[in-house]
Design goal:
Structural class: alpha/beta
Distance between the termini: 64 Å
Radius of gyration: 23 Å
Bound molecules: pyridoxal-5'-phosphate
Low-confidence stretches: none
Shape: globular
Mean pLDDT: 96
Number of domains: 2
Helix content: 40-55%
Largest sheet: 7 strands, mixed
Length: about 425
């Protein structure tokens, strides 16, 4: 094993991180080589700096004139230069500041400094690389973002154990969660991924439920190391007062020395920049010291360096400028209100359909947040319904042949009634 990896492992010895590391996580490190030498050159190479793998002219990264024009004449250091492997420092700090504003209960809790990754997908994959592997069991609800399967089951060869998300009354199924967690922990290690607001249901549990989740995991952590990954892709899009409006990470970050909390979030959905590919990974556990935090950052930096080297500097620069812009908050609020308006219309439509007794096979699942709503299709193939809708030009997603997912965030408010009329009519045509 590389001596740098060994030194990081020594720093993290006797912590939950060491207990949940995959083989790859244990081997990972960030080489001092080029980066350390380039940093040294930055301060000492006053005559010529020939360290960096970028072409320079007149002291700035070169670019083609047309690229400069197309990037609004921003300085080339913000558009075409390499970003540091863990991200542009000012953006990492701005995101941390936002994280604290969005999650006031994190105020006094030590966390790592958010690291920039190219989208949440990369953040989840790197987390999975470092902390999961063959023989591990991942607990997740039976309604989940399909990419988890590729990441955890195929790449990392974990066993996925699903728990029933909703009970018969349409509430978060606490019993199913607790039973699932106990069963998944039986091989000596527990990994959980939870995504609120949820894709595909558009559901965020309330504070009683998230407290239950925390208490369940805290109890299990007395006997097994627990990793809880919170996928906060749709964070902030909460439309009713019943949703817990801080990240579950807030409750888990300082919950137990044997619980590793990993927050994966990003600008992708929150800031309406899907193709920018800017996500963040933040880690915490109870008792984490500054040395632990630095060692975890080195491990993550190695993961980024070996997978993508670094994330787009152009995207990071634009976001950083947007966050500091006087109109940022106001414009973000306006975008939220647009989606909230669609959610209210959706509620009205569903209430009217229920009053009218339309398509009783379609049971709307609880929805209070995010981009999506889903129907449970009782006695009806969701895939057959999807194909039928497609024939009439309406695109939806079927999940497990049981659920039909509709992205209400992607459809203008004025035409939502027509979209849902099409869905109900198509369901009724199955008799
Ligand atoms: C729950 C969830 N997590 C993560 C992602 C991916 O985010 P990104 O595009 O930043 O990789 C998505 C995208 O659909 C998602 O629904």
């Amino acid at each position: 094993m590389n001596p740098l990896a060994r030194a990081l492992n020594d720093t993290l010895a006797n912590t939950v991180v060491a207990r949940v590391f995959s083989d790859l996580g244990r081997r990972m490190y960030f080489p001092k080589g080029i980066v350390a030498q380039a940093a040294e050159a930055k301060s000492k190479a006053t005559k010529f700096n020939a360290t960096v793998g970028m072409a320079y002219a007149d002291g700035a990264p070169m670019t083609l004139p047309l690229i400069r024009e197309l990037t609004g004449n921003l300085p080339t250091a913000e558009t075409v230069a390499y970003a540091p492997t863990p991200g542009v420092p000012a953006l990492r700090d701005a995101w941390k500041e936002q994280m604290l504003a969005k999650n006031p209960d994190l105020a006094d809790v030590p966390t790592t400094r958010p690291m920039v990754v190219p989208g949440l997908t990369a953040g989840i994959t790197m987390t999975a690389d470092l902390f999961t592997g063959s023989g591990d069991t991942l607990l997740l609800p039976d309604l989940f973002w399909g990419n988890y399967r590729l990441i955890f089951e195929e790449r990392r060869q974990c066993t996925m154990r699903e728990f029933t998300f909703f009970d018969a009354a349409g509430a978060f199924d606490r019993t199913a969660f607790a039973d699932g967690a106990r069963a998944a922990a039986s091989n000596g290690k527990l990994t959980v991924i939870l995504n609120f607001p949820n894709n595909p249901a558009g559901f965020t549990p309330g504070s009683g439920d998230v407290t239950f989740i925390r208490d369940t995991l805290v109890q299990l952590a007395d006997s097994v190391p627990v990793t809880i990954i919170t996928d906060d892709a749709y964070f902030g899009l909460f439309y009713d007062d019943n949703a817990y409006t801080q990240s579950l990470f807030t409750l888990m970050a300082d919950a137990h020395p044997n619980i590793l909390a990993v927050k994966v979030d990003g600008a992708t959905k929150e800031d309406y920049v899907w193709g920018f590919r800017v996500g963040f990974v933040t880690v915490a556990f109870q008792g984490m010291t500054a040395e632990h935090s630095a060692a975890i950052e080195q491990k993550l930096t190695g993961a980024i360096r070996s997978m993508v080297s670094n994330s787009s500097v152009l995207s990071q620069s634009i976001l950083l400028r947007a966050f500091a812009h006087p109109q940022y908050e106001q414009q973000k609020q306006a975008a939220f209100e647009l989606l909230e308006g669609r959610f209210r219309t959706l509620q009205d439509i569903l209430a009217a359909k229920e009053r009218e007794g339309r398509a009783p096979q379609l049971q709307p699942l609880p929805c209070n947040s995010g981009y999506f709503m889903s129907f449970r299709c009782n006695g009806l193939s969701a895939e057959a319904l999807r194909v039928k809708l497609l024939e009439s030009g309406v695109g939806t997603i079927s999940v497990k042949d049981q659920f039909l997912r509709i992205a209400f965030a992607g459809v203008d408010r004025e035409v939502l009634p027509e979209l849902f009329e099409d869905v109900f009519t198509a369901a009724e045509s199955f008799g």
